[in-house]
């Protein structure tokens, strides 16, 4: 079977771009110009550019045109982390770690070695975790405003695994999942893996446009609403109580299951209660300890309504069978003895200190950030393109995340997310000053 004729145009552009004959930043013909030049329909020309964008070769900028994309590989949903020079700072991934934590790990391992039944750690755990460890997490969640029995808590291999488990149960291939136009990249990966359609919901500085969500739910059969109400990733908003209440009302009105991501919620202890408390029978709350404890401690959890618990446990059995007993014992031990509470307090103080540094170093730039957040959202000047800025920063040893990773609507803005937790606090001013210098060095 012959391929569609437009494929020849796609292949021609792809070869020209990859060969370097079309350099990064080259503006391509408009859709109408391409249609006229190649004697193809306007819709076909649009499809050509859509396929090139999906291949990571071009960027479409509303109102400006289509441009050849920087091919260095330091932007996009899964950017390269192999820098061309020695790494100066990783601002692409939030992975806070306190200096004393290695010693805490040594102490905890000694405690486990001296425990009465260390052999139990060699046995298979049930899907969802052992009952006493689920009870520890349920008690911990009381401080988040969530009151649930241990049976309603399922332990997982990190928050991403919790999200994966829940989506497998509440959605089927082809289902529509409403999500913010900019949101957590892990959702996009799971949506692609499970063949779910992400329907973007526009938002502003304070949160999503709930009128737009209402219209979407009236126009489409939305199965799931994914939301990050406290310390949104990447925009940092914290939804007020009235917004949470209305979101819960909309979910009930349109029979939508809410999947609430609470991963960063611990950073703002003054936030309103989780959405789960407003609609407990239709909300699955997912979170983990990667940001509060350590990214290498892969313990996550899902709080699910009772009718979904059995199906979620079966999904866990199908994916991993059970948790690594050593990890769950370590993590729940740190929760039970108060280590996690102390670390969360330290993280909150640390995040606020870093935001103060960022506000000073990035003054007068278009930055959105919550004062308790570990990241900042930097909108670039009109003459700057996110892929070229990311590549230029990589040449300075600085990794960043571009808006491509977070966009669900196919039109990423010219913006970067800066994760502030990895560089030592005393080095952060110099890192951000260097980042600013790279931005200012681009010609107008």
Outline the structure in words.
The structure is a single chain. The protein has helices spanning 6-19, 31-38, 42-54, 101-113, 131-142, 159-170, 185-194, 210-219, 241-253, 306-319, 325-336, 339-361, 386-395, 428-441, and strands spanning 58-61, 65-68, 89-91, 153-156, 176-180, 197-201, 222-227, 257-261, 283-288, 300-303, 366-368, 375-379, 398-402, 415-419. It is an alpha/beta fold and 444 residues long. Strands 4-10-9-8-7-5-6 form a 7-stranded mixed sheet, sandwiched between helices. Helix 12 packs parallel to helix 14 (428-441). It starts with 5 loop residues before the first helix and ends with a helix.
Key terms for this structure?
444 residues, 3 domains, globular, Arc Repressor Mutant, subunit A, alpha/beta, 7-stranded mixed beta sheet, Aspartate Aminotransferase, domain 2, Aspartate Aminotransferase, domain 1, 14 strands
Radius of gyration: 23 Å
Number of helices: 14
Order of helices and strands: HHHEEEHHEHEHEHEHEEEHHHEEHEEH
Helix content: 40-55%
Shape: globular
Overall pLDDT: 91
Gap from first CA to last CA: 49 Å
Low-confidence stretches at least 5 residues in length (pLDDT < 50)? none
Structural class label: alpha/beta
Percent of sequence in beta strands: 5-15%
Strand order in the sheet with the most strands: 4-10-9-8-7-5-6
Second rung of CATH, namely the architecture of the largest domain: 3-Layer(aba) Sandwich
CATH fold label of the largest domain: Aspartate Aminotransferase, domain 2
Strands, count: 14
Q: At the first level of CATH, what is the class of the largest domain?
A: Alpha Beta
Number of domains: 3
* Sheet of most strands: 7 strands, mixed
Task: Please state the oligomeric state of the protein chains shown.
Answer: single chain
The CATH superfamily title of the largest domain: Type I PLP-dependent aspartate aminotransferase-like (Major domain)
InterPro entries: Aminotransferase_I/II_large, HTH_trans_reg/aminotransferase, PyrdxlP-dep_Trfase, PyrdxlP-dep_Trfase_major, Tscrpt_reg_HTH_GntR, WH-like_DNA-bd_sf, WH_DNA-bd_sf
Domain HTH gntR-type: 3-71
Keywords: Aminotransferase, DNA-binding, Pyridoxal phosphate, Transcription, Transcription regulation, Transferase
Protein name: PLP-dependent aminotransferase family protein
């Amino acid at each position: 079977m012959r391929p569609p004729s437009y494929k020849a145009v796609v292949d021609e552009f792809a070869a020209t771009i990859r060969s370097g004959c079309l350099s990064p930043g080259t503006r391509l013909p408009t859709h109408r110009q391409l249609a006229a030049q190649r004697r193809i329909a306007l819709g076909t020309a649009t499809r050509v550019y859509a396929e090139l964008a999906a291949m990571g070769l071009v960027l479409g900028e509303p109102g400006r045109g289509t441009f050849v994309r920087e091919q260095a590989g330091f932007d996009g949903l899964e950017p390269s982390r192999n820098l061309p020079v020695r790494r100066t700072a990783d601002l692409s991934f939030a992975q806070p770690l306190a200096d004393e934590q290695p010693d805490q790990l040594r102490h905890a391992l000694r405690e486990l070695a001296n425990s009465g039944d260390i052999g139990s750690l060699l046995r298979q755990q049930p899907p969802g975790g052992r009952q006493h460890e689920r009870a520890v997490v349920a008690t911990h969640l009381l401080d988040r405003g969530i009151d649930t029995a241990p049976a309603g808590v399922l332990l997982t291999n990190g928050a991403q695994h919790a999200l994966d488990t829940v989506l497998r149960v509440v959605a089927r291939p082809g289902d529509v999942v409403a999500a913010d136009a900019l949101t957590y990249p892990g959702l996009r990966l799971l949506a692609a893996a499970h063949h779910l359609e992400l329907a973007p919901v526009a938002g502003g500085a304070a949160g999503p446009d709930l009128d737009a969500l209402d219209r979407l739910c009236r126009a489409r059969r939305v199965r799931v609403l994914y939301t990050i109400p406290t310390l949104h990733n990447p925009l940092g908003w914290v939804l007020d109580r009235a917004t949470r209440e209305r979101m819960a009302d909309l979910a009930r009105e349109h029979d939508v299951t809410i999947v609430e991501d609470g991963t960063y919620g611990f950073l703002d202890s003054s936030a309103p209660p989780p959405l789960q408390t407003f609609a407990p029978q239709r909300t699955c709350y997912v979170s983990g300890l990667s940001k509060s404890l350590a990214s290498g401690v892969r313990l996550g959890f899902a709080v699910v309504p009772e009718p979904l618990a059995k199906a979620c446990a079966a999904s866990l059995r199908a994916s991993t069978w059970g948790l690594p007993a050593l990890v769950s014992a370590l993590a729940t031990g740190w929760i039970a003895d108060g280590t996690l509470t102390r670390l969360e307090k330290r993280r909150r103080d640390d995040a606020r200190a870093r935001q103060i540094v960022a506000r000073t170093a990035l003054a007068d730039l278009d930055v959105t950030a919550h004062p308790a957040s570990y990241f900042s959202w930097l909108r670039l000047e009109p003459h700057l393109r996110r892929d070229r800025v990311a590549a230029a920063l990589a040449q300075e040893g600085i990794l960043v995340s571009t808006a491509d990773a977070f966009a669900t609507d196919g039109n990423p803005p010219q913006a970067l997310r800066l994760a502030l937790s990895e560089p030592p606090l005393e080095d952060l001013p110099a890192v951000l000053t260097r980042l600013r210098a790279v931005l200012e060095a681009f010609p107008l």
